[in-house]
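question for whoever is on the cluster today: can someone run the full assembly for these? two chains, 918 residues total. i dont have access anymore since they changed the login thing
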Amino acid sequence: MAETLPIRETAQGSAHARHGSNIGQPVTRRDGELKVTGAARYAADHRPPGLAYAAMAVSTVARGRVAGLDVAAAKAHPGVIEVMTPANRPALAQDPDAKHHPFMFRMDLLQNDRVRYANQPIAVVIAETLEAATEGAALLAPRYEAEAPAATLADGEVFVPRAVGVGSPADLAVGDVEAGIAGAVHRVMATYDTPAQYHNAMEPHAIVAEWTGDGLSIDTPSQGLAMARGRIAGLFGLKPEAVAIRSPFLGGGFGSKGMLSGPQVLGILAARLVGRPVKLVLSRAQMYGPVGHRAPTRQTLRLGADGEGRLTAVHHHTRTASSRFDDFFEAASDVSHTVYASPAIRTSYDAVRLDTGTPLFMRAPGEAPGSIALESAIDEMAAACGMDPLAYRLLNYAETEPMSGKPFSSKALRACYEEGARRFGWEGRPLAPRTMRDEQGLLVGWGVGTATFPALMFEAQARAVIRRDGRGIVETGAHDMGQGAWTAFAQIAADSLGLDIDAVDFRAGHSDLPDAGIAGGSAHTATAGMAIHHAGAAVIARLAELAMGDERSPLFGAGNAGVVARGGRLLRRDDETRGETFSAILDRAGLAEVEGKGSSSDGGPAAGDYAKHAHGAVFAEVKVDPDLGQVRATRLVGAFAAGRIVNPHLVRSQYLGGMIWGVSFALHEKAVVDPRTGRVLNADLGEYHVPVNADVPSLEAILVAEEDPHVNALGIKGVGEIGVTGSAGAVANAVWHATGVRVRQFPIPIEALIV
Amino acid sequence: MTHSLTLTVNGEEKTVALDDPRVTLLDLLRERLGLTGAKKGCDRGQCGACTVLVDGRRVNACLTLALTVDGSDVLTIEGVARNGSLHPVQAAFIAHDGFQCGFCTPGQIMSAIGLMAEAGPLDDPERIREGLSGNLCRCGAYAGITEAVRDASKILSGKGGAA
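^ ran it for u. tokens below:
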């Protein structure tokens, strides 16, 4: 059964306020009322009849083996039904350690007694109540044979990965970097450290799983329903059609719900073991291990510039870490392929293996840590050249993509710098640091950073229908993790069918629907949006064919002049007074409905000819207490250009959210790893600091107009991740400007600022 | 042994025979009374997603043992809209896009309503930010949240507003 958003009428009128129609309009969220009334159902909100509760026991050591579990004590606890360990875990059709392609990640599904990271699941207790399951898991009192873990970038043997990110080369160069640095007038060489970070979506990973006959019925959050279904089908030897996953709402994902995680599969296994529906929800602490994180990096930048300040060479080297048992390498250097013009650029990588869960995509993977290091280094070079940081960036503006030499499909970055600087009031910024104070004597600093993120497209399918009653149905298994899929796709769907948005039933969030690709890489709106666009066009083409071939239709013979669909009618393009309703066409043809299918991919004849990116400029003000070193980001202005904007209301929210992530990267969040035990010491929301409301007093996002004729027919680039980039560097650079202290360790520790 | 517990939840009296004294107010609401609006984000009182009003005051329902609120009046997000009409705070959250994923939203709204009761009309954004800083939003919808609460406060104190 498909998920349709149940929109109900309220005393205030329609559940969402409309200010016009469809693409480009600031429509409020169609799921808004469900979310503000508590009626939106997230995975853990489900409670099917006969439900049992599962709680995971997780390892407290980072490396070794489980030597003993007191299963008897757990089973003796009232309410405990069963304890799942490697000894009785139901069989799987596929080895959880099998890896048939690079993005099939190994899972910990109780396949043996090995421990390969802290917080790895080592047993699951299933009970009649949550309280009994939780207590049962505590009673297992595991004993370990522990081994010394590799915990930090300083540990272990350094090697060069075969590829980084999503198949990028680990070493890539254009021009002669060494000659460019040797011949430079100004040189900067600096090393920047970024920590391990955890996604910490507000919704912990959760699953409610029920075996039904020979199939599976699942509620679990997913940013990639088709991939999750395929992974589950593979692990359990099922046909994909036998697995139904509902994921109408995610309580945040940020990459952590892109790949099915081990604990979600443990919920399915637990349901099989006890023959009942089972709910398994991770505790916050359990999210620091088996569900991915952003790996730490140590980045070394070597820049050369001529006497005027023009870059002669950029070498961006990243050391990062993957787990000991799988491969994911944070592609932090790759941002230097794109941002600043230089005749010589080299990006390179090496890595170590740590006893952690495997790192994964986290909002702006690669770009976020890469951007803060590059923007800091560029700022250091601007200072070395005695130039204003904005003027310096404009001097080294890339007219074509520096690494590839390709023209940009569109690039309104100059307008972003201009509009952002004007709004922020950048003009008159003193060049020297530590020269501005506010009325309370706090040090004030201003910084800028360039934002960039690739405009990606993946593959997706959609199905569209127009019914005889004139209503449309559009289906694709899209994912709403907060970006506004329920609304933005309905807008695209309505335009594709020439209908008012309220005349379209948009269905998403279910694995039975056509594959909408993934909600990741900031590519979901463009990818699934183009599939919807094509599906709608196919329906309209079919209707036009029916009308133009029928002499009873006012559109008969429109032929080459063609027709246009608007407001539930087909109109002659050359004479819009001549037309008829969709219903009239279907009535006469004796059809209940017409259907069209559409797909999208990163293709097109000119796909490879252009460098495709969204761009932006972020300006930040910070205030620093000169005695305590305490930093506050008091004001941020971001100006972003990302092609056609489907819904400015929602896109602004994406930018602002990204900018807050940038503030967090520069000033707040960090997983503190104990080098002796390999455990995350601050695995909770009290000590892993994410910004609270009072941390971000003033934020503004400017939507800079940009038309892109090349990225896709709709002209859409992504907006979900770009806000993180640029922002983090702008804040770091503002801290330097406030204090005169260049801190190369993030988040910036306040003790570094007391001079 | 079972423990008898009587509560008024969203204006309705409920008597619960609780078989386990370890049950928190949050788990009582979510797993036994079917009121899943309040969310569990951390189970440690660190995120605020579980915020409900107990006798008009904001509490983290995850840190509150159900048995300790015997006889209390509990208001959850499900009880905020009345007769099909959204509360001004709810309407303002939609108008100002004060949420993205929506998971923290029930807690944010309950916290905002509680804050208004504590502090009176809220015109100063800094006061709103401070007063709502026990409610984390990882999506970063803080600007919209602050504007929404300010706007709703104006409406509730009879000074108009745009929502």
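summary bc i know u wont read the tokens: Chain B touches chain A through 65 residues (CB under 8 Å). Chain B has two domains: 3-77, 88-156.
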